[in-house]
């Protein structure tokens, strides 16, 4: 990394924000951690770049960025169609862009949250130790056309990361909360055998689930006292409809929480598109800890010659030796 560079937002869809790991440790002051909705994408970006810092999170919104300076970017999270002019960029990779390059991102319908990072992170204003926008707390704001994002110039190589699969819904593992035992056994059994559908209503606060049949309630839930709330909690509203709470969820609430989605599966919950089928299964705390994925594996990105418009400019032959052992 060297001299400063900037990336300008040329066009931008709704609710595109800068996100990083968020602001842990402020729950008692009424501030949720916030940060990236898909925290696994941050780890993948860090594996690609070494220092990913704060990046751009787009919830399926188109995005067009222009580089003013040489930068190394990474593309992680929900796959999007990424192009620079006639060049198609592979997803889950790091790529080197030069001054004047324009990066176009278009949604593909796979997953929800996509991420663009630069080596060293975007150097926007930090608030309480984080650059993450937290819209519920009125910290930061969505990006818009004309915004200029400072960063450091860099010359990193092209690499590919082995992405942790988390698209299309599926099974979510839960640990019990202090309120799980308040649900009657028959209600818990029905909850675990129900196929839920990710509703169209959802954002960084949480996603609504729909299902056939009656809702899920505890005995005497109207008498429950307000309690702390965490991302991943599966909270039942007064009519028994479950919501999976996200990074900008409230910090306290009186609705019962039937369980908490484990850290390893919360990205799958947040990346489920409307219509995706979700089911639940309880695991022990030890099983939840053991399920945490390891550090993402990274390998050099081998480009297909058919995708290289600059093929003739590449160094294709190197390390030539004489078959006879004589110097040439």
TrEMBL record:
Species annotation: Jannaschia donghaensis
GO molecular function annotations of the record: ATP binding; hydrolase activity
Gene3D superfamilies linked to this entry: Cyclophilin-like
Protein name (record): KipI antagonist
Domain Carboxyltransferase per the UniProt entry, residue ranges: 28-299
Pfam families on file: CT_A_B
Designated gene of the protein: kipA
Keyword tags: ATP-binding, Hydrolase, Nucleotide-binding
InterPro entries registered for this protein in UniProt: CT_A_B, Cyclophilin-like_dom_sf, PxpC
């Amino acid at each position: 990394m060297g001299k400063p560079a900037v990336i300008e937002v040329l066009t931008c869809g709704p609710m595109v924000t800068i996100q990083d790991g968020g602001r842990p440790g402020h729950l008692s002051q009424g501030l949720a951690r916030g940060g990236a909705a898909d925290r696994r994408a941050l780890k993948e970006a860090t594996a690609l770049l070494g220092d990913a810092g704060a990046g751009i999170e787009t919830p399926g919104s188109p995005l067009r960025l222009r580089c003013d300076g040489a930068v190394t970017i990474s593309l992680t999270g929900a796959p999007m169609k990424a192009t620079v002019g006639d060049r198609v960029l592979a997803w889950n990779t790091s790529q080197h862009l030069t001054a004047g390059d324009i990066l176009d991102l278009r949604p593909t319908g796979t997953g929800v949250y996509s991420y663009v990072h630069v080596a060293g992170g975007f150097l926007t204003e930090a608030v309480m130790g984080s650059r993450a926008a937290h819209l519920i707390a009125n910290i930061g704001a969505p990006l818009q056309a004309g915004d200029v994002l400072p960063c450091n110039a860099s010359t990193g190589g092209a690499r590919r990361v082995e992405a942790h699969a988390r698209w299309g819904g599926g099974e979510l593992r839960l640990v019990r909360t202090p309120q799980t035992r308040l649900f009657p056994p028959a209600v818990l059994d029905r909850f675990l055998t129900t196929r839920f559908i990710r509703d169209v209503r959802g954002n960084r606060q949480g996603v609504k689930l729909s299902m056939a049949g009656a809702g899920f309630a505890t005995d005497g839930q109207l008498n429950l006292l307000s309690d702390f709330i965490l991302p991943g909690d599966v909270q039942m509203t007064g009519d028994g409809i479950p919501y999976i709470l996200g990074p900008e969820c409230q910090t306290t609430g009186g609705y019962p929480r039937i369980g908490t989605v484990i850290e390893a599966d919360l990205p799958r919950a947040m990346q489920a598109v409307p219509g995706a089928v979700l089911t639940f299964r309880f695991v022990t705390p030890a099983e939840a800890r053991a399920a945490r994925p390891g550090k993402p594996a990274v390998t050099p990105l081998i480009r297909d010659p058919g995708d290289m418009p600059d093929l003739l400019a590449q160094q294709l032959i190197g390390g030539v030796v004489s078959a006879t052992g004589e110097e040439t």
